[in-house]
Amino acid sequence: MVEAIADRLKTAESVTDLRFCHDELVRELRRWLAVKHIEQLAEEVADVHEAVLRRVFFLAEQETVKRSVGIRPPAWCWYVMGSIGRREPTVWTDQDHGILFTCAREEEPACYEFIRHAAAIGAKMLHEVGYPYCSGYVMATNRRWAQSTSDWERQLSSYLGSGWPNDLRFLYIAMDMRPLYGDAELAEARRRTLFAEVADRPPLLARMGEQVQFPPVPLGWFGNVQAVRWGPHSGAIHMKQSGYVQITNALKWLACLARVPAVTTLERQRALKEAGILPAALSMDVQEALSVYYSIRLKYSTEAEDGRDYVLWQTLNRTEQKQLKQAMRTAKRLQRLVARRVVGMHE
Questions:
Q1: CA distance linking residue 242 with residue 217, whole number of Å
Q2: Fewer Cβ neighbours under 10 Å: the N or C end of the chain?
Q3: Name one Pfam family in it (predicted).
């Protein structure tokens, strides 16, 4: 079925066609959950999302060329970040993308005009297809995430030098950048550079390690899950903040420490195990925890588009509750590992 959806995406010419394919993913996923292993399912869901995004980026480029807006850069790349960058999206995922390009210095203003127009079309199309705008504005319509490589390098240098909390957040987000459309090496090279530059600055790396301890995993000393107490999501847990984000950020930090510029969470986990940074037993527990977080998020994301990151604790069956508690314990163990490494850097 994934192949059938992907084939239709190759010839989609309108937002309506693309939206139909995205909605079909939701319908089919409910059936796939009952018959497929989660690892296989995760790969297929990511493949469909990527096919949608590539088609949108292609149509946005074609429309910009058709309207003769600016100058198309001789080399440019539309890249993705966040859960799609790490190849672990659920059915409903928002937009996390940016653009890098190179061109002659005298053509840069016209190339920026082309890029901004294409970004606006692409973001609007994605929204209409079913990908909400990023609440943090991590999109190519934001100048921070759509730049010439020379401007990107100047921006990166300023963030590496300051180390303010918002700058650290930018660095963590950028570590997930993965090329999806265009000249892949533009994004690949910048990600490799980012990992190396952070690793070469121990004080900055230490501050980033301290950030891994937040937010705290919502699991009490006696194994009690601390669900949301007030508001519309009372009694629910936020699936991303319940240990998943803590694990992904910890693995990013450890990957910087080990100078491993891998892009997906599982690639980082395997590389860190091979490098001896992650003990074998903890590495296995991390892999299992990631599978638990993904399977629960994927299962319940098919039921509601709004508030999709929240799941009522009582909605989970006993096996899922037990698995999630164990995953939370693993997240806390990984946070402690990073904390010990940070302390060692200060000694």
A1: 5
A2: C
A3: DUF294
Judging by beta carbons within 10 Å of its beta carbon (0-12, 13-18, 19+), is residue 223 exposed, middle or buried? exposed
* Per-residue 3-state assignment (H helix, E strand, C coil) for 17-82: HHHHHHHHHHHHHHHHCCCCCHHHHHHHHHHHHHHHHHHHHHHHHHHHHHCCCCCCCCEEEEEECH
Tokens 């006696």 found at? 222
* Tokens found for residue 303: 């039921």
d(CA 189, CA 166) in angstroms, rounded, equals 23
Q: Which pair of tokens denotes residue 163?
A: 């180390």
Mean pLDDT confidence for 4-14? 85
Cis link prior to 215 (omega < 30° from 0)?
yes
pTM, 2 dp? 0.92
Is pLDDT above 90 for 8? Answer: no
pLDDT tens across 285-317, in order?
999 999 999 988 888 876 655 557 899 999 999
Cβ-contact 206, 346 below 8 angstroms: yes
For 241, the 3-state DSSP assignment is helix
Residue 107 contacts residue 132 (beta carbons within 8 Å) = no
d(CA 258, CA 341): 12
Read off the tokens for 128: 């209409």
Distance CA 213, CA 209 (A): 8
Helix axes 202-211, 165-174, angle to 10 degrees: 90
For position 179, what pLDDT does the model report?
98
Q: Closest Cα to residue 169, out of 137, 122, 217, 199?
A: 137
* Burial readout 57-81 (b: 16 or more C-beta within 10 A, e: otherwise): bbbbbeebeeeebbbbbeebbbbbb
Is 177's pLDDT higher than 90?
A: yes
Mean pLDDT of 4-18: 87
Is residue 183 within 8 Å of residue 61, measured between CB atoms?
no
